[in-house]
Amino acid sequence: MTEVDAGLWTTVADVAAALCLLAGAFLTFAAGVGVVRFPSLLARMHVVTKPQVLGLVLLLLALGLRVRSWSAVALLLLVVVFQLATAPVAAHLVSRAGFRTGKVDETGLHPNEMGEVPDDDPPASATSGPRAP
Q1: Tens digits of per-residue pLDDT, 3-36?
Q2: Of 10, 40, 45, 85, whose CB is crowded by the most CB atoms within 10 A?
Q3: Cα diameter, the chain
């Protein structure tokens, strides 16, 4: 069995960290450009949450590969978990507030699930038929 030089693993980790850093920086930059370029609130909200979160995860992965300390990696993992838990909730609340205050163009929503149900349409439970005992 051949032993692998410790310097080789250091080099591989550094290259992987550099690639993750570049990819994360690109995604974060793309999220920033999307906020400026996209026309509607919902499109801007989408571009802020999706690539920005993945970009942050890649940046933190790069930092964890470069630092190589278990305590730092545990702290970075905690940051990732909180980011993944809070970003969708924040995006939902922003979109809901925008919808309720009239900042969202409703003509582009297909279907509008938050709108009023017309009187001539029966509720979904009434069309499903009788329930089995």
Answers
A1: 556 788 889 999 999 999 999 999 999 999 999 9
A2: 45
A3: 77
